[in-house]
Amino acid sequence: MKIRDLEIFLDLLRTKSPTLTAQNFKITQPNVSVLVKNIEKMVGIPLFERLGKKFVPTTKALYLGGLWIEVVQGYYSSLETLGEEGVLIGEMNLVATHTIGEYFLPQILFDFVKEHPKVKINSKIYNTKECLNLLKNGSVDLALVEGEIGLEYAQSEGLVRETLCKDHLMVACNDFILASKPHYIDELLDKKWIFREYGSGLRDSFLKALGNLKKEIPIFLELDRTIAIKDLVIHKGAISVFSEVSIRQELKKGILFPIEVINLNLERYFYSLKRKSQPLNSIVMRFEEFINRGLQSRD
C-alpha cells in the first residue's frame, strides 16, 4: 500500500462518504470503493457498514485508522527532517489573499526560505472564497486570508483558524479638499465607487462594517486587482476602500488621501487556516510561527 492509500482511508473515516473523499483527493468514487475492498480483503474483515451512500466505520476500522495516522505522520516527518538535525526538507503549497500576498508575504517568504533553503514553497494569490475552496478540497496545505472567517464557520468546515494580526481599512480618494474633513457615508454616495470582486475579503469586511447601508453603496465598477483600482482612484477621481498598507506609499507621496468616515469601524483581522484532518506537517507549523512573528512585527 502507498501512503496516499492510507491518507484516502483516513479521510474516509472522517467523511464517511466515498464521494466526498473522492473529491478531496481528485479521484473517482469507484476508486475509493475499490481501495476499501482491497484493504478489507487484505485484513480479512469488513471495515465499513454500508448505509446507502454512507460508509460507517467499524470499531476495528477506527482502531486501524489510529495506527495508520501515526504511520502517515511519521512518513512526512521523516521527509522533513532528513539531513542535518533541525533542517527542514520538503514542500508546502500555500495560497493567500491579495493584500497579504502582495504586500506582506513576499518578504516573509524570502526570509523563511533564506532560513530554510531546503524547503520549497508554492505560493499563489486568490480572493478569500477561492482560497477557502482550494484549502477544503485538499489542493493546498495552508491559506492566509483577510476575509471575515468566524470561528464557528471554520470549525463547521473542518478547518483550524488562527488569528495572525489586525489590519486597518481606509476609504481613499485623490481629492485633498474632499478628504480634509470627516464625512458620513451617505455624503459619499454620489462618488464613483470601485470595489474588489465578489468573494474578496476586503470587500466583505467593508460591506459588513456598513451594515444596512451596504445596500445603498453605488458600485460603479468591480475589479480583481488592487493596483488597477489604485490607478483609477488616482487618475480618474474614483473612490475606493483599501488596506492601509496597500496605499502607504501613495499616502506619503500625497497622491491619495484618506477619508475619515464617521461612525464606521474599519478594523479587521488576518487569519491562517488549515484542515483539521490533514497530517502533522512540520513545515506548515514552522511557517505559521514564522509568518505570525513577521506580521505582528511589521511597521
Individual helix count: 11
Strand portion, in percent? 15-25%
First-last Cα distance: 50 Å
From the spread of the alpha carbons, the general shape counts as elongated
How many beta strands in the DSSP annotation?
Answer: 11
SSE order in H/E notation?
A: HHHEEHEHEHEHEEHEHEHEEH
Low-confidence stretches: none
Query: What percent of the residues sit in helical stretches (DSSP H or I)?
Result: 40-55%
Q: Summarize the biggest pleated sheet.
A: 7 strands, mixed
Q: How much is the radius of gyration in Å? A: 24 Å
Estimated structural class? alpha/beta
Overall average residue pLDDT: 88
List its traits.
alpha/beta; seven-stranded mixed sheet; 299 residues; two-stranded antiparallel ribbon; elongated; 22% strand
Q: Can you walk me through this structure?
A:
It is a single chain. Helix content is 44%, strand content 22%. The chain is elongated and about 80 Å long. It has eleven helices and eleven strands. The protein has helices at residues 3-15, 18-25, 29-43, 59-80, 98-115, 128-136, 151-156, 201-210, 226-236, 248-253, 282-296; strands at 48-51, 54-57, 90-96, 119-125, 142-145, 159-173, 193-196, 219-223, 240-243, 257-259, 267-275. The longest helix has 22 residues, at 59-80. Strands 3, 4, 5, 6, 9, 10 and 11 form a seven-stranded mixed beta sheet that branches. Strands 1-2 form a two-stranded antiparallel sheet. Strands 7-8 form a two-stranded parallel sheet. It is α/β, with parallel strands linked by helices and 299 residues long.
